[in-house]
Write a structure and sequence with these properties.
Elements: E1 2-6, H1 11-17, E2 20-25, H2 29-32, H3 36-39, E3 44-47, H4 54-66, E4 73-75, H5 82-91, H6 99-106, H7 108-117, E5 125-128, H8 136-143, E6 147-151, E7 161-163, H9 166-178, E8 188-192, E9 196-206, E10 209-218, H10 222-228, E11 232-237, H11 243-260, E12 265-274, E13 280-286, H12 294-302, H13 306-314, E14 331-337, E15 343-347, H14 351-355, E16 360-365, E17 372-373, E18 383-389, H15 392-405, E19 409-411
Parallel strand pairs: 1-2, 1-4, 2-3
Antiparallel strand pairs: 5-8, 6-7, 6-8, 9-10, 9-12, 10-11, 11-14, 12-13, 14-18, 15-17, 15-19, 16-18
Helix pairs in contact: 4-5, 5-6, 6-7, 7-11
């Protein structure tokens, strides 16, 4: 199996499971940090300035085609390589991923449009093709208040805000437009704010049927967890305890997959359950594995990493060959330790300290003391934990305790003493 891999996410898994891997890498810190020994394992490495550059992506395809390298699969786990994956798959004559699937699962407006066509419920929404010319009155009339502003092609609640009234909406449109991070465009969506529980559904599919299907509930909805400084993370719900919820979400997922064109591979679906009505409303779907440490949480439950399941399916493997086994705890979840404010990290727990806790199954830090972290959104991952417990309530209490005991402390850069000077 010859594979073209975009970016570095799960690169070790790809190298271990494919016969020949060609990498398309950009200047992001993760790609630049790949050691020479790892780069040497690739059959070829293409460095490009951006995954949004059609010229550079086309050049990659041209080189492979003219050298006679017949790529069998394109692997794209990150959010911001989905369009590139669809484009490259098209140029290389592959049918397992398409640009139309990328559009329907990357742009929240298309997702909601396709969902409505399939009879899947979503919150009220309104397309904002340009923040600079958006009409607050029209948005408020179409969606109502409170509402949520989010990038049409965003991820991880970046540049996502809750707005409670007309004046606040006008101000949010102006300030977001002035401080929009790359690579987000100025095309946004306004969405009805749903008060209730938030779930993420992580699955791998073959021929429209699930190989694996996991439903997790966030400890608090992501925007609420961020603004309220509660535990960031989720608990993986067991189907045996929530059979009706699983059945409903499986039906919704199957309908939505058909609507957006997903027949196989991984999906990560976000759904709200509204307080009072109990309605399940689709927020968005991604044609990739879940972010953060979702795949590690899946492994803690049933013994196989979510990325391994996705790759095994992509490489035409048989589900029966995967060694699913129960983990050490009946209930597992993921927890992200985050600082209270942006700044330079001055102290944080080390991995050995975290793993000494009996309920911590795994711990990975993406930052270290001295790094600057941005607390403007909850997806600048600092330390990710996989945790386990005997019951759901025990796990939620453990998550809160861990968040309070293991702090990541920051200070404004200007408050730190220059190197070499005594404090």
């Amino acid at each position: 199996m010859k594979v073209l891999m975009l970016r570095h996410n799960f690169h070790q898994l790809v190298l271990d499971h494919a016969d020949e891997v060609y990498a398309v890498l950009d200047p992001s810190p993760g790609c630049r940090a790949l050691p020479p020994a790892t780069l040497a394992r690739f059959a070829g490495v293409y460095w490009i300035s951006s995954y949004d550059s059609l010229e550079e992506l086309s050049a990659v395809a041209a080189d492979l085609v003219t050298r006679g390298v017949e790529i069998d699969r394109v692997v794209s786990f990150p959010e911001f390589t989905q369009y590139a994956a669809g484009y490259l798959a098209h140029l290389l004559g592959l049918g397992h991923f398409t640009s139309s699937v990328a559009l329907a699962t990357r742009d929240k407006r298309v997702t909601k449009f396709r969902a409505a066509q399939a009879g899947v419920a979503t919150a009220r929404w309104y397309s904002i093709p340009d923040l600079a010319t958006a009409d607050p009155a029209a948005i408020g009339k179409a969606v109502g208040f409170p509402l949520v502003l989010k990038p049409a092609g965003g991820w991880g609640t970046v540049s996502t805000v809750k707005v409670d009234g007309p004046a606040e909406l006008a101000e949010a449109l102006r300030t977001i437009a002035e401080d929009l991070p790359s690579p987000l465009s100025a095309q946004f969506v306004a969405e009805e704010f749903i008060a209730g529980e938030e779930f993420h559904v992580d699955a791998v599919w073959r021929d429209g049927r699930p190989w694996t299907f996991h439903v997790s509930r966030y400890f608090s909805p992501r925007l609420q967890a961020w603004s309220g400084r509660t535990a960031h993370g989720s608990v993986l719900l067991r189907e045996s305890e929530f059979p009706d919820l699983y059945a409903q979400l499986l039906k919704i997922s199957t309908q939505l997959n058909a609507a957006v064109g997903v027949e196989r591979g991984p999906t990560h679906l976000e759904v709200f359950r509204e307080h009072g009505t109990g309605r399940l409303l689709v927020s968005e779907i991604a044609s990739r594995v879940g972010g953060a440490n979702v795949s590690d949480v899946v492994k803690a439950l049933d013994g196989v990493h979510g990325g391994v399941v996705a790759l095994h399916e992509l490489f035409d493997g048989d589900r029966a060959d995967l060694p699913f086994t129960p983990g050490p705890y009946p209930v597992v979840g993921g927890l992200c330790l985050v600082p209270e404010r942006s700044g330079v990290i001055v102290s944080m727990p080390d991995r050995s300290e975290l793993l000494a806790h009996p309920n911590v199954l795994d711990a990975v830090s993406y930052h270290r003391v001295g790094d600057h972290v941005d607390a403007a959104h909850p997806s600048d991952w600092c330390t990710l934990l996989v945790i386990g417990a005997e019951t759901e309530s025990d796990l939620e209490r453990t998550a809160l305790d861990l968040s309070e005991v293991f702090e990541i402390r920051t200070a404004p850069a200007g408050d730190l003493e220059p190197a070499g000077r005594p404090a």
